[in-house]
UniProtKB/TrEMBL annotation:
GO terms for biological process: dimethylallyl diphosphate biosynthetic process; isopentenyl diphosphate biosynthetic process. Its EC number is 5.3.3.2. Keywords: Cytoplasm, Isomerase, Isoprene biosynthesis, Magnesium, Manganese, Metal-binding. It comes from the Bacteria. Coiled coil: none annotated. This is Isopentenyl-diphosphate delta-isomerase. Belongs to the IPP isomerase type 1 family. Pathway: Isoprenoid biosynthesis; dimethylallyl diphosphate biosynthesis; dimethylallyl diphosphate from isopentenyl diphosphate: step 1/1. Gene3D superfamilies: Nucleoside Triphosphate Pyrophosphohydrolase. It comes from Chitinophaga sancti. PANTHER family: ISOPENTENYL-DIPHOSPHATE DELTA-ISOMERASE. GO terms for cellular component: cytoplasm. Pfam families: NUDIX.
């Protein structure tokens, strides 16, 4: 069975479920999450998406992103995918949500109600090569500079979520 996503309205209220790729072809709003990981040095874990991902392959982004499955909470899904993609798990807390829409050159559309979660981790990372081409912890100031100098190297959702997270951390 193909993976399904949870369709939602602008208030994150469930309106149905749909096969993931169909939702991305139609551009329907669905629930998603983005996990940001910092270490004790204040550096952020970024990963370069696998080159053959269905969109945004080779671009740099936060620790992991995905969609909860029907019947799964955002927190359950975030822990599951963090382990599946990066090979570790850690305590996470949800810090904010936002909605975005990005149209990709291949005709797919990300239209997501994105729950942003954050955690602190200093241990071993064992990334899944089907998901991750490369990874590294980078100082937040360096990420800010790279986003200004090389924005095309980052995923669309990262470019939106990162400044919101930095604003949240500053409060």
């Amino acid at each position: 069975m193909e993976a399904q996503v949870i369709l939602v309205n602008e208030k994150d209220e469930v309106t149905g479920v749909m096969e993931k790729m169909e939702a991305h072809r139609k551009g329907l709003l669905h629930r998603a999450f983005s996990v940001f990981i910092l270490n004790d040095a204040g550096e952020m874990l970024l990963h370069q998406r696998a080159l053959d991902k269905y969109h945004s392959g080779g671009l740099w982004t936060n620790a992991c992103c995905s969609h909860p499955l029907p019947g799964e909470t955002v927190a359950q899904a975030a822990h599951r995918r963090l382990f599946e993609e990066m090979g570790f798990d850690c305590p996470l807390s949800e810090v904010f949500q936002f909605t975005y829409r990005t149209d990709f050159e291949n005709g797919l559309i990300e239209h997501e109600y994105d729950h942003v979660l954050m955690g602190i981790y200093n241990g071993t990372i064992n990334p899944n090569p089907q998901e991750v081409n490369d990874y590294r912890f980078i100082p937040v100031e360096t990420i800010t500079r790279l986003l200004q100098e090389q924005p095309a190297q980052f995923t669309s959702w990262f470019k939106l979520a990162f400044p919101k997270l930095i604003e949240h951390l500053g409060k």
